[in-house]
Amino acid sequence: MLNNKMKKAASIMAVAALIGTSVTTPLGALTTKAAESQPQSQPSTLAVLNPNLLSQDISVSATNSKRFATNWNLTSGAAYTTLGYDTNGGAVATDAVGNIFHLTNASMSMQTTFKARTNVAVSQTIDTEIGKEYTYTSRFYLDESVGPGPTRTMVNRNITLQINDSTPRTLIGLNQGIVNGYEGTFSFVATSTKTNITLASIGTSSTRDYRLFQTLQSIKKSDKQVQQDAIALEQQAQQAVNNLFNGSNPANVIKTGLTQAEIDAAQNLVNQVTDETKKAAFQKNLDNAKKQLNDRIDAENKAQDVVNNLFENKNPNGNITGNITKDDIDAAQDLIDKLANTTKKAELQTALNKAKQQLTDRIEAAEKEAQDNANEAVTNLFENNDPDGDIIGNLTQDDLDKAQDLINKVTDETKKAELQSSLDKAKQQLTDRIEATEKEAQDKANEAVTNLFENNDPDGDIVGNLTQDDLDKAQDLINKVTDETKKAELQSSLDKAKQQLADRTNAEKEAQDAAKASVNDLFLNNDPTKDIKATTNQAAVNAAQEKVNTVTDPAVKEALQKQVDKAQAQVSARAGITGVISKYTVGDMYITGTYTGPATALSVDVNGKRYYGGDIANGTFKFYVADKNLKAGDTVIVNFYDSSKQIRTSVQVQVFEPLKVTVADYKIGDGYLTGTYNNNVAKVGLVVNGTKYWGGTVANGTVRFYAADKIRTADAEAVMNFYDENNNLLASKTIKIQAAYTGEITTAEFTLGATYITGELTGDITQTAISINGKKYYGGTIASNKTYKFYVLDKRITTADEVIVYGYSADNRLLSQKTVTITQ
């Protein structure tokens, strides 16, 4: 760190002051002078590109007290001992006799006092460019209070400038007067990359010391050189930009093989152009080249990705993927054809050719397999595998459909027609067989149904001894009827019989169910083998007895009565102690509650294992269970003991899970919001964009809330709130809303005799179907480019048919339909 004296010396801006014959001027004056010296025709930015090459730092070296810190070098006629600072911050060079020169800062100007007895010189080596012209400029004037007389003449001294080893040039001559100051200017052409500049004060001894001011000193490229450099730079920039294009013409496309490095090099040159008009023109062409290169690279990358995606693991040296199609090959070929880089184009074409060949091989193998599978399926429809004979006895429509599916996969039209002819024979034979079978099925079903009723009258009452087995047998026979009208007629009669039997048995069943539920509710865990609940009282026993009295089945009634009698005995024996359990949630440390009566001790049963302990006093109790790891569904009972250490009453503890709620994502157009909860939830509310709605169904751990008229846009803000039976808010869930499915069948085309209906679609359509004169068929395939096709060769479509294509979303919603255009 420089001390204060060093900081003052380091602030001196004109280094030539060290020669003892000049002083620097303040920075503001120097800047003004430099600006005035610039030709008005040059751009102002040239000043930035043409700096003063002379170092302005004259601080003393920290390691050598005889040198400055930078590359200035001080010499004198006699050797000097030190170079340092005085107490006021001035720079002082001293020899054996005394000061050689003294540099101070006084009256806001830099001053140098030099000894008349001593010659002093200062030099610096600067960086230059060979062949370039440079200009040295410096302005001096004497302190009028020091010179001999009003003329302020340099007595016996002059100031010289020397470039390298050339003859020194006199800036201020011997005994020359400088009343109004002197400005020295000199231009030279650099012959080396390093140029030495030496300023000297020389002459014979004088009768007095001199103090000189210097207001300007610099070495810069000459104005002419600056203009030449600017023009050369513009030419280089223009040529660099032009060379990016074919024929070095920016009107053409970029050249083949253009690299980013060439773009960057041209940009560097354009950045240095100072003429804003030319710079803008160069930049416009350069930006065009950048865009073309980026587009070219993007096209190559896209083509590479598409080709790679044809292969497993995106490896063009491997095998093609399992789902590759001719459309995929064509799409890749289109991208490759558009590439300009012939090397990259050839590389990708080689990989694509591999994919083409592999796909061809795969298709041929698939066709052979398809023909073999279809031929086997068709021959298996006939006895002795002979398509000219009769169909096998157990042939079904499913067998025909499977054979048809296999035939549909055959692409060789001749072989396909041969197989279809044999299949059509099998279809006709099965139709004939089914018609005969149908008549027999109708007769048997009709007989079975009428036998269910008195006097065989389906409009009357069922027979007295009708059983469920009779109904099941009749149902089996109806199920074999295929004529929908007849089947519906028979089913209607059977349903009447079912309802009458159900009505007959339901009354007894309802009585038994009600009695069992009432009796079970008297006991712990609703289990009559256990003791009665703590809450079971005489009123509960009486209510159960009334329900048991309505049961008519003797065996069931006897069993239920024994259980009621057991509960009655325990209620009669219980007296005195009651307990109320506070709500216990998984994770609570204690089971707590209140009690009445002479209870003196506690125990807790967990899934049949008993634990003793707890604190009971003054009507409250608690029992530590953190180490019992209780969970929902555990059977937990608190037992209260009297002073005789006998259990007087037991109370079951319900273990609640911590509240957990969920709400499913909602898609615009859905009817309901759905969610789940695990306990304590009694009602829910919905808030949509600040508007509150109440309603919904809350039961058995699930929530259902109609929202189609409340949530209408995907950007709506919706929250579902969960409440207990006292309207306390338990939890809130923000609902994720998804946009509704959209899509359109944009085209639907079919040419008579063609294999497929084809067309294009948009949006979220993922499934297709067709209808022909109202009869619907499902299937078809959708390609990644949003085209589809639907196999209809076997449908024999004519121009008189009405054919419609339907588009469905992934959740089977109909999004669009379009009538097929049929052409000859």
Write the layout of secondary structure elements.
Layout (H helix, E strand, L loop, with lengths): L3 H7 L16 H11 L8 H4 L23 E4 L3 E6 L5 E5 L3 E8 L2 E6 L5 E8 L5 E10 L14 E7 L5 E4 L9 E8 L4 E10 L6 E12 L1 H20 L17 H13 L3 H33 L17 H12 L4 H38 L17 H12 L4 H38 L17 H12 L4 H37 L17 H12 L4 H20 L4 E4 L2 E2 L4 E7 L4 E6 L2 E5 L1 E3 L2 E5 L11 E6 L5 E7 L1 E2 L4 E3 L2 E2 L4 E6 L5 E6 L2 E5 L1 E3 L2 E5 L11 E6 L5 E6 L2 E2 L4 E3 L3 E3 L4 E8 L3 E6 L2 E5 L1 E2 L4 E5 L11 E6 L5 E6 L1 E3 L1
Parallel strand pairs: 14-22, 24-32, 34-42
Antiparallel strand pairs: 1-6, 2-3, 3-4, 4-5, 5-12, 6-11, 7-10, 7-12, 8-9, 8-11, 13-15, 15-19, 16-17, 16-20, 18-19, 20-21, 23-25, 25-29, 26-27, 26-30, 28-29, 30-31, 33-35, 35-39, 36-37, 36-40, 38-39, 40-41
